[in-house]
Amino acid sequence: MLPNNVNGCRQLYLICNTPPGYATSNMVFNGSPPPAKVGKNVRALAMCWKGMWYFSEEFIEIGTVTCYAAK
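^ that's the sequence the OP posted. Answer follows.
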């Protein structure tokens, strides 16, 4: 858990580490493509607002996070 942001909201990093033998990781929110993040060992900043977690870059409400590895 990170310190609260300037608005007093909780925040944390969601991390998808790429396993050995794979080239990239795809982070998908709420089971819906396209992936929110793609790359080697990707991470996304999430913040809490009104009792829910949101992806800070696009303000997507996060219910689930799934990581997929691609060769």
